[in-house]
UniProtKB/TrEMBL annotation:
It comes from Virgisporangium aurantiacum. The lineage of its organism: Bacteria, Bacillati, Actinomycetota, Actinomycetes, Micromonosporales. Keywords: Membrane, Transmembrane, Transmembrane helix. The chain crosses the membrane at residues 15-34, 46-67, 93-121, 141-161, 168-191, 211-232. This is ABC transporter permease. The keyword Transit peptide does not apply. Coiled coil: none annotated. The keyword Lipid metabolism does not apply. It comes from the Bacteria.
Length: 239
């Protein structure tokens, strides 16, 4: 595990993803104040909910934890250092879940600060005692954590970085939207991005699961991806 932490700290990609994620959060958090109904008491929640969108970056980070090693052909050295592949995968899952938590916490600070600045600039009074606002922030942090863990599983199942990242983002951006338009939210609410949106209270215009249900569903997705990744990793020929 120390080697995994060192690798994560010393490569450039995580820091770039973290920085870009903050820009996305700022844009999302200030958007409702610029374009929305400033008399709506939920406007601060709608802005802060964009913290959850940083989960797209933790998803990519998790994917690259495994698929990136295959791309750079360092995975063989990793397995020589630790022949138990399940342990390697577990270490990556733990470390990158922690990284997802860090992304979420940094993003939470950014979202709250951006919301406060946008509110002050537009003369909107924010009720900072609103429990739903803080549940939204907590849900956004949890969404970042869950997608980081899910990304590790996806990266282990699809060791090609380009295919894994493109496929995952295409699924979230396109496939879930198509499914929702064809069968409605009754079915689409059980899909990963919809579950994340419900967990982070991200306004989508569609009915979704309650926060606790979305959290439980994402834990199930992570467990399923992790179990499948462990089986596939143990049987994969890396020579």
């Amino acid at each position: 595990m120390p080697a995994e932490i060192l690798r994560l700290r010393t490569i450039r990609t995580p820091w770039v993803l973290l920085a870009v994620a903050q820009l996305v959060i700022v844009a999302g958090a200030t958007g409702p104040f610029a374009n929305g109904d400033r008399t709506d008491p939920a406007i601060a929640r709608a802005g802060a909910a964009h913290l959850g969108l940083a989960a797209l970056f933790t998803l990519v980070l998790g994917i690259m934890a495994v698929a990136g090693e295959h791309r750079h052909r360092t995975i063989t050295d990793t397995y020589l250092t630790q022949p138990h592949r399940g342990r390697v995968l577990a270490d990556k899952l733990i470390v990158h879940t922690g990284a997802g938590a860090l992304f979420g916490l940094v993003g939470a600070v950014t979202a709250i600060a951006a919301t406060a600045v946008a509110a002050a600039a537009t003369d909107v009074t924010v009720d900072w005692s609103d429990s739903l606002l803080w549940r939204t922030v907590a849900g956004g942090v949890a969404w970042n954590i869950a997608f980081a863990a899910l990304g590790v599983g996806i990266g282990a199942l699809v060791p090609n970085v380009t295919a894994a990242v493109t496929g995952a983002l295409a699924w979230l951006a396109l496939v879930e939207g198509v499914v929702a338009s064809l069968v409605g939210s009754t079915v689409s609410q059980w899909l990963p991005f919809a579950a994340g949106s419900a967990l982070g209270n991200l306004p989508t215009g569609a009915d979704g699961l309650p926060q606790w249900g979305a959290a439980a569903l994402l834990v199930g997705y992570v467990a399923l991806a992790g179990a499948a990744a462990t089986i596939v990793t143990d049987r994969r020929d890396i020579t």
